[in-house]
Amino acid sequence: xxxxxxxxxxxxxxxxxxVDITSILKGALRNSGLREGLLCAFVPHSTCAxxxxxxxxxxxxxxxxxxxxxMPKDIEYEHHLRWRDGNGHSHIRASFLGPSLVIPFHxxxxxxxxxxxxxxxxxxxxxxxxxxxxxxxxDH
Length: 140
Description:
Elements: E1 2-11, E2 18-20, H1 22-32, E3 36-42, E4 48-53, H2 57-70, H3 78-83, H4 88-97, E5 100-106, E6 109-110, E7 117-122, E8 129-139
Antiparallel strand pairs: 1-8, 2-7, 3-5, 3-8, 4-7, 5-6
């Protein structure tokens, strides 16, 4: 049993930007030398999230639109009133989407579906420098 850890910096462009992190995770797995196990990706931030999606433009827009319908940006949030930072909706969205992913791997390959890509979504009103922590546990 072995472990491997990497911390990767990702610069996001703006609220709603979705970054495909598939190649980053595959690279971390390759660097680990592990063949069978689990890869955990985690963002230590409260206004961005990780999830899987089919990474294509139409679906990315659909995701942004769905979040706006479910958790509108333009309503009053207590967080806005307290901190005046305009990102109460960002915290709520991130809480629902979540900060982590666990992906099994077999024979050194991530067990992802054909149309399934792991992504990081920026939910804060402006682009930011984000940290992605990748922790891998498994066998050689």
